[in-house]
Amino acid sequence: MTFVRVCGADELEEDTPKRVELDGTPLSLVRTEGEVFAIHDICSHANVSLAEGEVDDCHIECWLHGSRFDLRSGKPDSLPATRPVPVYPVKIEGGSVFVDVRASLTQES
Ligand code: FES
């Protein structure tokens, strides 16, 4: 695994996605329910930033058509999106957030 520092842990506000870019990959970082998640920032339905959506119940909602993606698996739980968005491993160390964008946790089904 290749974890890379993306920001300070104290830069993330609860339930407020933060858009960052790592190795050319746009990410939404989300602190919610005591954990930090990293999900690819582009909706699988159209070219829309998920970081502008709302977070609730460990899901991030696409603001354009309302599909909700599980932050743990990247899978949508509602239409119109049908394909998952990649999610990536996160670790917090020394007050910093690290993400490994080479190791997607998402499984296409
Ligand atoms: S662009 Fe995200 S659900 Fe349509």
From TrEMBL:
Superkingdom field: Bacteria
Pfam families: Rieske (PF00355)
Keyword Iron-sulfur appears in the UniProt entry: yes
Gene Ontology molecular function, alphabetical: 2 iron, 2 sulfur cluster binding; dioxygenase activity; metal ion binding; monooxygenase activity; oxidoreductase activity, acting on paired donors, with incorporation or reduction of molecular oxygen
SUPFAM superfamilies from the UniProt entry: ISP domain
Residues of the Rieske domain: 4-99
Keyword list, A-Z: 2Fe-2S, Dioxygenase, Iron, Iron-sulfur, Metal-binding, Oxidoreductase
PROSITE patterns documented for this protein: RIESKE
Alphabetized PANTHER family for the sequence: 3-PHENYLPROPIONATE_CINNAMIC ACID DIOXYGENASE FERREDOXIN SUBUNIT (PTHR21496:SF23), FERREDOXIN-RELATED (PTHR21496)
Protein name in the entry: Dioxygenase ferredoxin subunit
Species the sequence originates in: Streptomyces griseoaurantiacus M045
Lineage, top ranks: Bacteria, Bacillati, Actinomycetota, Actinomycetes, Kitasatosporales
